[in-house]
Amino acid sequence: MTEYQVLLKTQKNELFRIIEEVGLDASNFDWIEERIEEPERDHVISKLAYRGSAYFYGFDVTFARYLCRKCPGLQQPTGLAKFSGWSSVVANFTQWAKRVKKEIDTPDLWAEAQKYQSIFSLPVQDQTDRIPFSHTESEQIASALEEVERRIIDEFAPRADKIQFIQSKRSYLDSRAKRGYPRVDWMNLLMATTISIAASLSLSREQAHQLLRFQKEALAPVIHVFG
Prior knowledge:
Layout lengths: L1 E4 L3 H13 L7 E9 L4 E9 L5 E7 L2 E7 L7 E5 L2 H20 L3 H9 L17 H22 L3 H19 L4 H18 L4 H15 L8
Parallel strand pairs: 1-3
Antiparallel strand pairs: 2-3, 3-4, 4-5, 5-6
Helix pairs in contact: 1-2, 3-6, 4-5, 4-7, 5-6
């Protein structure tokens, strides 16, 4: 015989309020009654799933004890926890909801990089240029990169941690130009760095084109940037 160990309406309502309090939209979640078939027992549990994703929280009730399966876990993709009381479940569910909110709000940098790939591409004629930059050119590049950094900060107003990220990328590009990197290798590095910055700042397509314009204008005296 199948046992129905689903949550009460009052329990579901409490979880609804938690979802809303952490900043998620409860309308994006679905309640699912999932059948669990085991040698000892055949039962149905309540499972809350975030629509369009792999995220869920399952409530398996056995003799007033809760076996909760979830994705994401607190420190890993999935998690499993046992609780003897509903209050402990609520506390754990709250942590899970916050983790889901963080995952949803976090940009997919891999997808962002693919999005910018078509914007930032190298001209074919530069692919055979193996000549390093001269001392004068490397100094011009250093000044140009500082100008690009300033314009990024002024235009996009990134957070302090993002500014540090941009500064570290600018410093690395500067050092590579001064250490005799072949032009084509440095240009490839510039392209990868630009994509990384655009993805980190979650720039729109229009903003990515602005970033490209900043670089073209600043580096024009030295090199031909991205076609």
